[in-house]
Every structure is written in structure tokens, then in C-alpha cells.
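Hey,

The postdoc asked me to send both predictions to you directly instead of through the lab channel. I've kept everything plain text so nothing gets mangled by the mail client. Protein one:
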Amino acid sequence: MITTKKFEELHNKEVERTYLISLLEQARKENNRSVVSRISKILKDNPSVELFRIFVKKTKNQVPIKKKRTAVKKELVPMEFLAGLDYIEADDSELATGLGKPVTPEQVYKMITEKVIKGVEKAKGNPSMPWDESFLASGGYLIPHNYSTKKAYRGVNILLLKNGNPYAGFKSPYFLTFKQVQELKGKVKPKSRGLEVIYFTRLFTFSNQDKKQSFSTYKKQKMITFLKSKGYNANQFDLLVKVIPILKYYKVFNAVDIEGIDFGLKNLSALEKAKLGYVQPSKARHDDTKNTLAELIIKNLPTPKISIKHQGNSAYYTSNEDAVYMPKFESFDSANDYYRVLFHELIHSTGHINRLDRELGHKFGSVKYAKEELIAEFGSVFLSAQAGILWHTHGDHEKYIKNWLLAISLMQKDNTLLMRSATKAQKAVDYLLQVNSEGEPKFYEELKKEVTTQKPKPKPKEKPKQLVLALNGISKKSETIAFNKQLLEASKKGYTNDTIFILGTPNGILKKHIENFIISFDGKTLRTIIKETSKNTISWNHLIDLPDSMNNPLAIFKGKTSGYVVLTEIKETSKKSLLVAIHISKELKLTKITSINGTSSLYKKWINQGLDLYISKKSKLYNYQKPQKKETAPSLNTPAVAIQNIVVEEKTEIPCEEIETVIETIPAVKEIIPGPTRRSSLASKREERKNKVQEYYTISDTAIASFLGKIERKEKESVVITLTGGQGSMKTRCAFRFMNAFAQNYKVGHASIEEHPESTLYWNKVNDYINNVALNNIENPEIGSSSDLDQVIRNNDVIIIDSFAKMQELEKGFEVDKDLRKKYDGKLFIVIFQQTSDGKMRGGTKSQYDADIVLFTEKFDDYKHNFVYADKNRYQNQALNELKYNIYNGVIVNENEALENDHQELVLNDGEVEF
């Protein structure tokens, strides 16, 4: 049963009360008494507990061991740790375990500690210079940012994104989630690995056992609404509601691992570079010139300012005097060496009783001394990053390693140490920088003044002919005039890649064939359009009155993959008309021009393929006719035996009078005897196919390739695989395994109608089964109609439809043979069918058996034994009864292994329910 599997998956996981309640309801519907009994007991024994950790144990005998369940209070996330993390309000759909799942503080501490230990161990092997010379030579960045939100990562997340090495830098400071990459039309490079980012959310819980009322939500306003609905006063919120901070994480990819997105690093201003911790290209040793940003940080330290005394040969902070002692600036090997040491001591100074009040003044070599050194080390790295100073240690590297190895020994005993140190270091840095509510340091105010007073660089003069733009063109339409003005202003004053040029909404014939959304293009596209090459000679002047040109097209085509192509003429003031193709893509409720370029004879081929939506009478394509297939016809004077050898060309016309004469003079022939060279015979067709190379699908997963056989890539019609099974037989997971295998080499479309493509359950399976190569080759749009499905099919080589019954709900009478196999050419479909509890097929069995390959899933009590087998496979040479594919392990199994079932019962251990 499904709920048995779900209950087993809760082993060693945190789960919220609301999820257990929903699972209990599912178990009741399944009549799964075992799971109902277990969950009911947990909830009844722990009425006030909102967050549980469940341990499920298998036993060799089949008798449940009844043991007392106890609730053990689990330590919540310390509030101090939250200071260095982002707060993200979660959606209530995440109340179930899954992507964005809660992680215990213990898991976070362990993950961070292990990363830092690995980073330090790696640095041990390079005692001379622990920095990348090429990084210094090319410049780089020290403060990681989320590119979409433009927010800097802080505290422990800096360590995570630097893979545990706090001294590392980035060639690009930007990170994005996989979803953000997709939204920006980029691609993650194959074999790239995501890095964890920790954040926290808050769970609001309410419980009144007397009135049997309980409610949990991640949304504060939702809880207030609930309280009001039950007659409570919203002012009692703090008294009635328990707030539980929960750590979670998501994964991000660095910009260097992403293709297809212009991150604009070349166009950053001085202030923008400062925010990203920009490191100037430099040599290993610097001249003794002062660092502007570092000096601004020192100048803007909080008052009363710490006393900085330059005397002696030692660098240290004394709490008795509340002063930092430093050697003179000139005595350091480099300017930035001076600032690194100074920042280290300034972090120590924040521990003073009148500032952040940490324990100071302990003996060198003591545990408390080592812990304070760890805070100062992290803090100085964070502070140096604000000044664009890459941290390295020169001759002190051995000492640095020694200190870190001591810290590591402490971390191994207390894995919370690293996170506590990083959090306290971030707090110290925020104190020294005096960050505002927006997270900006105080010294930015002075930096902004310097940036605004700098004289702007003169813009390069543009070619004179680009300034001869007609002021308003010849159009009298308001939308076109507005576009012309915007274009003229851009040609004179300049524009950026993000500048949006609006053409208005489509009119006339254009409106009939494309969506009635605003048409636009951006500055990046404009640069490409007006970049003169041998193939493209479009200038600014050509684009005047562009909206009118688009609304009066010569032809409109449906794009080969997506969007549209509009064929039209654009005319420069003093030149002849230029025939261009305007390529359009659809993004949400926008119609975006992606390119404008010259045309070719390609469009005749598009007409042949039926992609034409409109052809104007003014176009040369209007009189173009698709070539007809060659046909055979008898000659008037040819014997019956040779009739088959005569071919009538496509433009041959015979007057009606002549046809009548033919009918009268041809002798009666009862039977036409096939000639030896008949073109439609099997013999002739076999001859034609001799040199033909048949394509087959390449499946990189050897187990799946062996199981499915050698599947041909058809030129006409398509191949269909149906996958059928009951609830909980892992059909969808099997489909995900197949999808990953095909997506290594082909474009795959996943029409997930049964399970919403943005749901947590869906993304759990993505994380379990889809690798980075496949991620870039799979699209999973929301399917709300048969036209949505049609678009997915045309865009991809392999299409998975989950499920057939849901597709029939969208389109009555939908059938596999009629609407998939014979309708499309050269595709491979995998269609999931559902079975009812009595074994009947939802949607009928006709479509299921219309497939080329018919697969069934077999379900066992232990889902790890579930397998899929073929009832029919036209492409398999092996005996079907010998082929069984284990879904859990992804391997071919023999008959005995497939039928093996240990029937182990799931039971709870004593005292293993905690929150």
C-alpha cells in the first residue's frame, strides 16, 4: 500500500504534525489498519508535540513489537544562529517532507564542519602560497550573491559556497538556483554540482486540547485569520501561538557553471564592484599604496572609535586599554597584509564588554582562546572581502594551519562550534560596518558620493549614418510614434542590455495569428540587430516604423520549435526595402522579438512542412505551390505490361477532351500484370532501402537499454511505450528512470498531469533520479489543454505523459494510436496508465495495447522489490519472461530475485519519537 511506503520513508526524518494527520487520512482511505494504528498512537500519546522525529525498524519476524512510544524534546535551532541566515517564508505545501525539507541543526552542523575540515586538509598540501595566481592576475570577487535577488549571502553560507575554504574567491560572485537558471533561459553545464545554502523559516502552531483545535502554518497572516475564525483576538497571538524556527536548505550553482546568461560583470560600477568584494587584478606582492575601501571602513568605524596605535613589532588587541596595537603601515610586506592583520584585531575588539561582550583575555593554547581566534579569523576574512582584499598568509601559512588543526580537533568534539563562530563573526562584522536595514555598510554612503562626483566616461561616437534617424517616421499610429521616439532617444543617449523597447500589441492580420500580448525586445537584442555583418546590414534607420511593418507582414510561420517567424519589409529613409525575418518567442504573457535578420529559401521548405499560417498576395511566396508526389499513368500507345513505367510530371495537364478520347480508345484490360521494374513493389522498395541507415535510440543506461531493446527512430509515425500498474507500484518513479536515461542524448518533454510539475513530490523525484546532464534536456510545463501537450510534443524527441486517464479528462476521446502514434512523426512516447483496485484499466485497454511496447509494474509489500516487465515488445529479441527491471535499484533481475519478498513488518522502536 502507498501509505505503508510513505510511513517507511519517514524513518530518521523530521516530520510535522500536520503531515502525520494527512497521512493518517490517506491510510484510512486505503483501509491500512497497521499505519492507522501507528500514527493514531503517536498523535494520541503526544497531543502537544508539533515536530517529530520518527524511527521505523524492520523485524525479521512478522509480528509487530509493541513498545511504549515516548516523546523526547529536541533542541530547537538556537536563536543566535539565525542572525547570519536569510529568513524565507515557506509555502504550506512544504509541510510534507520533501524538497525544501526541514533539516535538523545537527545535520547542518555536520555538513558545514565536514566541508571546512576538507577545505583545510586540502590547503595543508600547499604551504607556500594558498591562493590562485591566475585569480589574482584576472581579478575576482569575494562576496557571494544571489543573482536574481541581488542579496549577499552571509555568515556560514559564505563558508558553504566557498566549499569550506574561507580564503577562497570567485571568478563570478553570482549564484542561482536551478529554477532561476531556467527562468532566465540559461543552462547548467554538464557535471556541475550545486552547493548548499542554509536558510530558516518559521512554523506557527496553535493547539487547544480542550476544544480539540489545532492548526499549523508557515504563514503568520494565515494563522491570524485562523485565530479570528475561532473567536480569538489577534492581539493574543504571542500567547496562543508557538513559533518554531526551522532550518532548511536549497542548492545553487555558480555563474561559471551556467551557460546562456549574460551576468554583466564588464559593466559594473565602482559601487557595484564594492558590494561584490571585487579584487583588482594584481601581482602577488603589492606596492605600499593604501586601499581606498579599507580606509573608508576604518574611517566609518562606530563611535566611540577603537584606538589604533602604531608602535612596536606586534599586532594585538588589549581589552584593558580597549586599543589595537599595530606595526607601522610601511613595515608590512604589502598594503593588504596590513589591513588583514588590522581587521583581525578589530574583530577581537568587538568582544569588549561595551560592544558584543564575548569572553576575551584567555591564555594562548587554551580552548577558549582558540574559539575566539576562530571568530577573529572568520571575521577578518568577511571584513577583508568588503574591501576587495583576497586573504592569503604568506610565510605565516604553517602557523595558520596549526591554528586550524587545533580548531578542527575542537570541531570534531563539538560540531556546533563552526556555525557559532561564523555567526558571531558575521555579527562582529555587521557591528563594525554599521549595516543599515537594507544590509548596506555605512561606508557605502561616502562611496556613493564619490561615484556620483566622478565624471562619466565619454560615450564613443556612433557612425553618422546612425544619427540620421527620421524624427517620427511616416506612421500616424500612436504606438508606432511612441516606439520611434524611444528608438531615437536610445540612438542619441545610449541604452543598456536591460532597456526594453515596446512595439505595442499586434494589429490587423498579425493579431489573428499570434497572441494579443505586448510585443517587445531588449537592448541586448537591439545590439545584435544593428550589428552590421556580411549577412546582416540592418541599421537604426531600418527600425523606424517597425510596428507598422510587423502588422503588415508578407507571411507568418509557426516556428520549427516554438514561437513565430514574421516575414516583412523594413525600409530605411534613403534606401530600398529590405526583406527580413522577425523571430518571436512567447514568455508568459509577453511576445518578445529575439532576432531580425535576412531571409532565405528556407521558407519554401516551411510551406512544404505545413508551417505557414498566412501568406500575403504581395509576397512572392503567394503563388508557390507545394510539389506534388509523382504518380504513374498509362500511355495511350503503351502495352498493358509496360504501363507501370510511365511517370507523369507534377505540372503535366491533359485537356478534358483528350481524356474522354483516351477512355474510348484504350482496349479493355481485365488485369494489369506487374512489370519487373514496378516502383511500388517490395523488390523495388528493398532496393531503395539498401543504402538507407536506420537510426535507433541511444540509451546510455545499460540496464534500461537491455530491458527496452533496440528501438527504432521512425521517419513516419511514432513509437509508443505504455506503462501500467496499480497504486504504489512505482510507475512514476520508473518513468523518471526512463526519462533520465533518454535525456542524456535527447530532448525530453514531461507532461506531468497527475502530479503538478511544481509540487514538492515532483521535485523529490527530480532530485532522486535526474542528473545534471538530463536536467538541461528536460522541460516540464504545466499541461492544461491538448494544445499545451501538442507544444511539448513538437518541442521534444521523447515525451512522457502521466497519465492517460488525466489526458482523457482534458480531451474527450483521446487515444494513443489516433492522437499520438499516427499523428506525429519521429517521436517516442511513454504513456502511464492507471489500474483500479480490481485490476481494470482507467481509460480502457484499447489504447494501452495500441502501443509498440506494453509494460506492467509488479508491486510488493517491500517496495524495493517492485519491478516492471514487458507483456509485449516489438523491439526485444530476448524472451520477455526473462526480463524484469527492478525500479528501486535500476537493474535487471532474474525470476527468483524479482519474486522474492521478505514481508518484513514495520514497527516503532521504544522511545524513538521525538520533536
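Protein two:
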Amino acid sequence: MASGKQTPRQKMINLMYLVFIAMMALNMSKEVLSAFGLMNEKFEAANTTATANNKNLFAALAAKADENPAQYKIPYDKAKEIKAVSDKFYTELEATKTLILDSNGIVPENGKLPYETMDKGAGLDETWFSGDGYSEKGQAFINAIEAYKAGMRKAIGDDKKLATVLQEVDSKFDISDVKDGEGITKKYLDYHYKGFPSIASLTKISAMENDVRKIEQDAFSAFMGNTAAAAASMTNYQAIVIMDKSAFFAGEPVTGRVVLGRYDESTVPTSVVVNGNKVKIDKGEAIFKFAAGNVGDHKIGGQFTFMEDGKAINIPINGNYVVVPKPNSANISADKMNTVYRGVQNPMTISFAGVSNDKVTASAPGLSKSGNGYVWDVTTIQGNQATVNVTAVLPDGTKVTDQKTFNVRGIPAPVAKVRGSVNSAKGSKADLANSPVQVAFPDFVYDVNTKVTGFELFVPGQPAIVVNGDRMTDQAKKAIATAQKGDKITINNVKTTLDGAPGYRMPGSSPFIWEVN
């Protein structure tokens, strides 16, 4: 258009074209600058939201650490390190944004940056670069990035579950040299910032701030999630057998459940109460100890208390156990000697293994309760055998019965007793005449109280004399007086009545021989 000889009109037209093209380029540049500005606004708004969200996440982790230190203290300590590293670098990025504006003489207008005029970046170039390398301030910015990366590595450590967070740190903040489109290797700041409009550099720093907050959020979320995942890991679960009761009888079906229960040392409750008493926690277990109590079924109750989101969460404890009698003696019996006696109160111990006494009842003619046991009066029972029937109510409410048959015998015949001797004795006629006649039961297991009601007296050379009562009558004394030294006087058929059972007929005694000396 500018070559050759042109008319003034043609030159004017060409000039108009040039002006038009320049105006189009100028308008496009303003649109791009405005686009960068709008993008920067979006980054800054997102950064404000991310900062607030991270603050809430950090506070939640701190609360968890306070409620359950065993599970959350270590993640919280790491989170504190990450927060300190992130906040420090974020502050340095904010200072860099201020540097970009100040170095290029950019002043906000009515609180808003003049994006369309932020097409120059010479101020930042002069601040960060010196010759072909970095200036002191440029190197300081690179050092700040490196310090941030090193701080994050130290805080995260060798936690493999946060490896992706470290990968993101290395990827987002890679400050290696870069090859441009023409294959020329340039330093990180040279490639990304040198010669760029100030609005573009400002937006890149805002994007870098967003990366810091995003990585911080990922770390906090990972700490919360990994801790919960570790606690919920199947390696912390055990199969727990829960029996419907802790003791079963032979022939009874065994019933219960098998559940999965978490068992780990990091889940520490605020308190554990069992049967009204606080118990201690040792390696994830609540250790309790209390007296077994009486024979029978007993309940175990209480609760675990955890703190969650500042509130006490109670988990009830419900269980039971059965107390059975402690075996402190053998059950030994002679099968043919299960005998009870007429005329006496036969003491009986009746129980049912594994069942408390209040759940046991026994019945038989003449059987009655006496203290913690029973007494059995079989005086009126006809025949030579009698049976005791026992019913017990088991802990599950079912009833079981049993019975035992005993031999019924009368009280054995007594032996006559005079002056402390049984069967026979030597003495004077006077001693015999003035002594009462008694009976004894030397081989009987019961103490029997009797009253002598009469006996027969035989003196050599005299007729037999029947005596009523337990003492010698005048007739008996006269007969005894006729005895000679060496004579043997016989007391026979001593008759007695039984105290407490006047209707019971006692057998006669064996004879007693008194030798006169």
C-alpha cells in the first residue's frame, strides 16, 4: 500500500487502514488485560474461601486431638507444622504481589486495580533480574519457594498416605529451568515473569497462593481421613463371640452371636463405667473386677463415654454371667446307705448346680424349710422308702426336675445304761438300788432325747419284777437286797418314749448285767 506513486487520497485511505488495525490491536490487548484481571479476582476470591475452610478444618482437627489424643495428636502436630509453613509462604506471596504493583507504579482506583493499564512489567524485571541472572530479591523469592517445599517435606515426613500431597508440592512448585518455544533454556523466573505484563505476573502469584491453600487443604483432609481410615481398618477388627449367657447345662442348646468389633489402642474413651464403678483402660481394653455375688444369673451394665464434636457420646454396656457353686468338696455317697430315720428331724441339704437357692423348690411328705436347708420328718411315712422331688428354674426361665429315693428306717434299739455304763457294770447292791435306769444310742448319728417309762428286773433266786418309771421301786430294792456277792442282776426290756414324738413306738433295749461285788 505504501509502495509506488500514490495519490493523496490513496495515502489517506492507507493511513486509515493502519490506524484501524492499530486500534484493533489496542482493543484486543485491553481485553486480554481485563481477562487476566478477572481471573485474578476469581483466584483471590477462591483463596479467601480456601483460607476460611482450612481454618475450620484445622479447628476440627484440634478438637479431635483434644477429645482423643491417642488417635489424633500426631496428625494434629503435623497439621500445625504444615499450617505454619503454608502461612509463612502465603504471607511472602502477598508481599510479592505488593512488590509487583509498587515496582510498576500501579495504584488501585476506587479499590479496584486498573487492569487495562497494567500492560507493563519493567518494574518487576528490574527488581528480580540482574544481567542474565537473578538479583538479590529474585533469588530471595526462589529461596522462599524452596523453603516452603522443604518445610512441607519435613512436616509430612514418611507418611506414605500423604505421598500424593508431596507429589503435588513438587509439581506445582517446580522451579527448574525451562525450554521456551525456540529451544532456549531459561531460568524459572525468566521464563514465567520476565517481560510479562504486571497483571499477568500478579495473576500467576494469586494462582500460586491458591496452590498453597489447596495443598494445605489436601493435607488437613488426609490427616482427618487417614486417622479415621486407620481406626476403621479391618486390621483393628476382631471376631467377638457373644454368648446369650455365660453358662449352659448339658443337653441345652448353646446360643449366641458372632460380631466384628474394633479393637485398637488409639480409640480411648473419656471414661468407662462397669456396674457403677469407673474402670481403667489398658491397651484398648476396659479392665474390670468385682465380686461374683451369689449363685445364679447376674447382669453386667455400664457405659463407654466418648467426646465427639464437643458432646459426650455414651455407648451402653450390657452383659450377663452365671455364678455356680464353687467345688470345695466331693460328692461321695454309699448307694445303699441313703437312709432317713423315723422319729427324728433329718437335716437335708438340697441344691441344684448352677441355680440359686431361691430358684429351687423341693417336696416330700414331712419335708419343710429350715434356715438355708430343709428338715425331713419321715415318722408317719409307711413303707421302707420315700422320695424327694426337686424343681429348679434355670436362668433362661425353663424348669428342670430331679428326684432321689431314700431308705426309711426306724431308730435302732437302745442299750440300757446305769451309772454311766452300758450293757454291764460291777458295783454294790446299794449303788444299783439307788441309781436311775437310762438308755443310750452309742452307734446312732442323731442325738435322741428319750424318757424311760419302765423295765424288767431279774435278781437270782427271786421272781421277775416289772418296774414302772426309771427308778427302782421298794419291791425291786428288796429283791436286790437279797443278792449275794458275785450274783448277776439283769435289767431287761427297758421301755422308752421319744421326746417330740410321743406316738412313736421305740423298740425295747438290750439287757444290762450288774455284777454284785
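Summary for protein two, as requested: Residues 19-28, 227-234 have pLDDT under 50 and may be disordered.

Thanks,
C.
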